């Protein structure tokens, strides 16, 4: 099943949804995918998340806590470039940080398993 988001940015702008209106993550995740309908945005999220995982591994390998900062910069930096530069929307993490963080990793898994295309 391909859950690639297909909603257009103009449709999202015409009928804005407040991310805080969702009562559960299972309700939020389809909205999250519509906020990531741009292929380049999804690719940048995937790259940023992969680099963040690498930084996490480097924390254990090197013992340096500086990799936490590098991981955060990679993860959020790539995602925000995707949103502001390509998706032309604001990341849902500004209004729903926990669900957005969870959505990042569920989308990452869905990309790895082929449910979401990049």
Automatic annotation (TrEMBL):
Pfam family, one: Mpo1-like
Keywords associated with the record: Membrane, Transmembrane, Transmembrane helix
Transmembrane domains' residue ranges: 44-61, 67-86
Top-level taxonomic group: Bacteria
Record has Membrane as a keyword: yes
InterPro entries assigned to the protein according to its UniProt record, in alphabetical order: Mpo1-like
The name this protein goes by in its record: DUF962 domain-containing protein
Protein's organism: Caenimonas koreensis DSM 17982
Taxonomy of the source species: Bacteria, Pseudomonadati, Pseudomonadota, Betaproteobacteria, Burkholderiales
């Amino acid at each position: 099943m391909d859950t690639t988001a297909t909603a257009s940015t103009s449709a999202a702008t015409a009928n804005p949804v407040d991310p805080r209106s969702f009562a559960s993550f299972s309700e939020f995740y389809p909205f999250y995918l519509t906020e990531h309908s741009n292929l380049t945005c999804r690719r940048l999220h995937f790259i940023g998340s992969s680099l963040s995982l690498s930084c996490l591994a480097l924390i254990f390998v090197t013992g340096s806590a500086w990799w936490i900062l590098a991981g955060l910069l990679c993860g959020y930096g790539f995602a925000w470039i995707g949103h502001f530069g390509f998706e032309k929307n604001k990341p849902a993490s500004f209004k729903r940080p926990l669900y957005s963080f969870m959505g990042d990793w569920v989308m990452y898994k869905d990309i790895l398993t082929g449910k979401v295309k990049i």
